[in-house]
């Protein structure tokens, strides 16, 4: 409970971002899905760089946080690379046939 009281502004900010994200995504037409996904992958890349930076701040003997951070970075990398592969395949569907 003490953690929540100390970080209440950050919690409000995350909740606000969730509502904004839902509103933005729900109003995007399907034709803009591919460019939006590419933009989301770019944003995820910036977030991944921040996660790596945060991992550098964790003490070397804190194995639980290092493990959780490593798993999070692995899953984030998997998400980004999968998104770029899907975007590439979708863009190939619109290219002229040879």
Automatic annotation (TrEMBL):
One of its GO terms (biological process) is NADPH regeneration. It comes from the Bacteria. Residues 11-95 form the NAD(P) transhydrogenase alpha subunit C-terminal domain. GO terms for molecular function: NADP binding; proton-translocating NAD(P)+ transhydrogenase activity. GO terms for cellular component: plasma membrane. The chain crosses the membrane at residues 12-32, 38-56, 63-86. Its main location: membrane. It catalyses: NAD(+) + NADPH + H(+)(in) = NADH + NADP(+) + H(+)(out). Its EC number is 7.1.1.1. Pfam families: PNTB_4TM. It is found in: Cell inner membrane. It is a multi-pass membrane protein. Keywords: Cell inner membrane, Cell membrane, Membrane, NAD, NADP, Translocase, Transmembrane, Transmembrane helix. The transhydrogenation between NADH and NADP is coupled to respiration and ATP hydrolysis and functions as a proton pump across the membrane. This is proton-translocating NAD(P)(+) transhydrogenase. It comes from Aequorivita viscosa. The lineage of its organism: Bacteria, Pseudomonadati, Bacteroidota, Flavobacteriia, Flavobacteriales.
